[in-house]
Amino acid sequence: MNGYQVPPYSNGNSGNGAGPSGNGGGGSGPGSKFGSVSLLSVDPPNINERLPKEIILRVFSHLDLVTLCRCSQVCKFWHQLAFDGSIWQNVSLFEYGKDITGAMVETLAKRCGGFLRSLNLRGCQNLNDSAMRAFSYHCVNLERLNLSDCRKLTNEACKHIRSCQNLLSLKVNSISNISDDGVRYLAKCERLVELDMSWCNISDEGLTRLAQSCRHLAALQLRGCRDITSHGVAELSRHCTGLRVLSLYECGHNIRDEAMQALGANCPELRTLCLSHCGHVTDTGMIGLAAGCGQLRNLEVAGCRLLSDSGFQALARGCPQLERLDLEDCVQVTDITLAALAAHCSHLRILTLSYCELLTDDGIRQLAGGLCAPESLQVLELDNCPHITDTALEHLVACHALQQIDLYDCQQITRSGIRRLVGHLPNLKVHAYFAPVTPPGQPEPRRRRYCRCCCSLL
Q1: Average pLDDT, stretch 321-334?
Q2: What is the pLDDT of residues 169-213, one digit of tens each?
Q3: Which of 26, 62, 195, 457 has the most beta carbons within 10 angstroms of its beta carbon?
Q4: Which domains, ranges and CATH numbers included, belong to the chain?
Q5: Any transmembrane segments, and where (predicted)?
Q6: DSSP characters for 73-100?
Q7: 118-120 and 429-431 beta bridge pairing
């Protein structure tokens, strides 16, 4: 032999006697030359035998969908565990939206069964109504369902969803095929707390039916539902008095002061309200809202051009807990509004004043000296405020918590003013734009001009 070789291990005793002692028939084995060599069998530990099934399931429950499917291909035992319903309680297929088919979703429903609690199918554009039928049959304990942008779904899907009586949160926004007929089925889910029906074709009829049945609603998104009027909002406020979040963004001119007065009278727990681009709301509505919604934290009224200082003065006095206020393009707002906010709203963190063209440096001075400025104010947006100058930036030095300021198209703001502000607030992010300086060109020769009135040469 040129070198020592370990003989292959055998579980049994071979007939040739080539065992560990080397006393076999040939006598020329390693044992005869080096003495007794004992080779022990050391099998690698089997994780399936060393760990309880419950521990492996717990590990699998923390894996993402792709990794879990890969683990299912290791062995039959892992395949069984990987598709155990207990670890499929929260499923999100959002990242694979365009690749998900209705048949795949039906298979998933059968595997998850009653274990499934939360399902995110947002953007699964191939999803159809039959898949919802499978979920309504197998996943009766479903609590959270996101079907946003599943645009092939219709009212028939709502008919199946009504079987999920434990449903607490539902998102069907951007599904234009859902109308008041679909809402009639969804109203059977009486435990709903959160509902998003933005950009669906619903009207006051559907909203009223929903409010009458789902009295526990706390958050409702109705963005872009232009057939909803003040009457529907009033009905909502009467039946869902615990409402905390309501978005009527771009619901149009049908939302008027009566809706705001109804919310103020019936929804004292309201925390967040979006009225952006509801252009017929006036100071009267704002005063009614402020009178009853003292817990309001976030208000968006961008593009509500009929609102003025008197409405926002009432808001500041009645809603001192305000944290975020969006007044973009409220063209009647003046320094008086800023003075009211400075005096009453000590928790204000985010304030948008873009396109409020009547504001001046004095308004910023009052805001910077107010209750919110030293510790609370973090974001201030002043885009396209033509009367704001570097003097306003000097006042903002007192806002120690300020993290971001937007100054696009503020023509009287200079680079040096911004540098001085950043010198006092080094962590501040400034968003501004300065048009590049155009180099002077050669003077053009004087040309003859014609008067358009008499066509005579000038």
Answers
A1: 97
A2: 999 999 999 999 999 999 999 999 999 999 999 999 999 999 999
A3: 195
A4: 49-87 (1.20.1280.50), 334-434 (3.80.10.10)
A5: none
A6: TT-HHHHHHHT-GGG-SEEE-GGGGGG-
A7: unpaired
